Amino acid sequence: MFIAWFNGLSNRSLVITILICMSLIYVSYTFNSCLLTSINRSFKRNASRQLLISTNLLEVVANVTIAPYSNNNNNSFINTNSLIGVHIVPLSSTNSTNNSATTISSSSSSSNNSTSINSITTISAHVLEAFAKYRLLRQPGSRPSRHLPDTLIIGVKKSGTRALLEFIRLHPDVRAAGCEVHFFDRHYQRGLHWYRHHMPYTIEGQITMEKTPSYFVTKDVPHRVHKMNASTKLLVVVRDPVTRAISDYTQAASKKSDMKHFEELAFVNGSYAVVDTNWGPVKIGVYARYLEKWLQYFPLSQLLFISGERLIMDPAYEIGRVQDFLGLKRVVTEKHFYFNATKGFPCLLKSEARSTPHCLGKTKGRNHPHIDIAAIERLREFYRPFNSRFYQMTGINFAWP
Ligand SMILES: Nc1ncnc2c1ncn2[C@@H]1O[C@H](COP(=O)(O)OS(=O)(=O)O)[C@@H](OP(=O)(O)O)[C@H]1O
User: Fold this and answer.
1) Residues 193, 141: contact at Cβ < 8 Å?
2) Which of 77, 183, 203, 208 meets the CB 3.0–4.6 Å disulfide criterion with 195?
3) Is 157 designated active site?
4) Residue 173 is part of a domain; what is its CATH number?
5) Does residue 163 have its Cβ closer than 6 Å to ligand 1?
């Protein structure tokens, strides 16, 4: 019986001991796992906080560029409090932070109300570019705005004015109105405010340009341009007046199917004896006559004459002269051009609008109709004295036949 009692007692103790042990194990496990979870959470929180700070920093730097580097405490730390309320303005659609270019290391000691970053933050080249752009745009006077032109391509019609404009606007410091505005000859009554509205946006240091070839031959234009700005620089492309007249005629004929022949229009009474100086394509070629009017308002030094022939043969040379005249660095060079044998004209490797090689449109470089050689000779004879006068006035011998 004693043995039986003893057996029963030891069994009970054993059970109790086991139960106590199990309880202890359970309590210890629970405690440890809580401890582990807590440590883990705390670790994670710290890590994500760190990450959050770096991300915010990048976003703010990328978008606002206030450059919140605070050296107030002679420590290199970033005070995120100073960023609260900053309006984030996106500068660019892509905010990629790849292509790391520069590393900003901000190690540091922290201080009150400031978050110290003990990490290395990497900023991309793109972000730095946005920085520079923003700073530029924020500089007083550097906000893009429209200005009246400083330079005009005033003519001459059908001499290569479009080519000149397209070539010179490759320069980053030149901005031009895309189409002919015709302010001084057709829309003058609308006022300068209207004119300025047709100009492109520019920033400080950029030249505003416009080309309307009819300005050269319109009576009131020299006076009006002078009234707007007596320092306006004037570019004049000129071409052998005979080929210019044929080009002018070709353009008109392309719009009118029943146009008379060139020879019928250029001469009076069907013979080549009398040149019809009232016919527009002939009249415009008497350059000396129109130049006289311009020189009543502007000194010769404010005009630059560009050879339409050389603009085709050697565009880089003529564009070099134009850049010098406008006080621009020679940025547009022969590297920008190639000769397109099919078109028979120089074309652009790339431009502001397109990054692939391209030529001027179909209306530039048209095939001219055959003109009787006797008519051409007679016109050459007619222009010769006027050309000589023009060479004298400009001091340039254009060597037209
Ligand atoms: N690179 C290049 N490509 C094409 N055409 C060129 C070029 N350079 C000068 N030219 C000559 O420009 C002539 C047209 O002159 P404009 O642009 O002044 O014409 S317009 O007055 O604006 O209508 C145009 O006249 P046509 O040949 O009669 O069409 C061309 O001879």
Assistant:
1) no
2) 183
3) no
4) 3.40.50.300
5) yes
